[in-house]
Design a protein that fits this description.
The protein is α/β, with parallel strands linked by helices. It has a domain of 84 residues: Metallo-beta-lactamase, Chain A. The chain is 26% helix and 22% strand.
Length: 193
């Protein structure tokens, strides 16, 4: 994905889940951070890689089982089932209480049931491709385990895998909405009142 740092002027934080090249671009992160003075919240391996390019006080390491806050937004790290040094998944709770589960490249794992029951996710990003072992079926398994209101198939290079995920979800979990994200479109999510 082609990210233009100057187009991200209102960035409060950059979240990094693991050190793989498609999640950690040190030059890009350093440039965005410098332009915006935002925080960088990163898994341990990524934080080590970034410590010479992000100013002290702007880089925070986060490990599974810990949490941090940026203003009124809470970021909680959970384990990840992915072949990286110390990968994490993230639970992001917005200032108005929207709960998002960012699975990074994680495969489904049994503890996702308890995480889903405890957190009651509004949105879950479900890995459906590219990562080792990731398929529309494993992405659906993440949705099945966590039971979000909206499931978002992502981390793929084919629209077919997103469509297949949507079909499985519609058949197996008809009460869970599917949102297939469109490139260059900005989505705003808030709690229904």
């Amino acid at each position: 994905m082609d990210v233009k740092p100057k187009s991200l002027q209102n960035t409060d934080a950059i979240l990094v889940t693991h050190e793989h090249y498609d999640h950690l671009d040190q030059r890009l992160i350093a440039e965005i951070q410098k332009n915006t003075n935002c925080y960088v919240i990163a898994d341990p391996a990524s934080a080590r890689s970034l410590k010479h390019s992000i100013p002290p006080g702007k880089l925070e390491e986060i490990r599974a089982g810990t949490e941090t806050k940026i203003g009124e937004v809470t970021i909680k790290a959970e384990k990840s089932q992915h072949p990286a040094a110390q990968p994490i998944t993230l639970i992001i709770t917005s200032e108005d209480g929207v709960k998002i589960f960012h699975t990074a490249d994680s495969a489904p794992f049994p503890e996702m049931i308890a995480i889903g029951e405890r957190e009651k996710f509004d949105l879950a990003f479900c890995t459906v491709g590219i990562a080792p072992g990731a398929t529309p079926e494993t992405g659906f398994e993440i949705a099945r385990l966590t039971k979000p209101q909206v499931a978002i198939p992502y981390h793929t290079n084919t629209a077919d895998s997103q469509k297949k995920f949507a079909e499985i979800l519609k058949t197996q979990m008809p009460r869970t909405a599917c949102l297939i994200p469109e490139q260059n479109k900005i989505y705003q999510v808030s709690k229904r009142r």
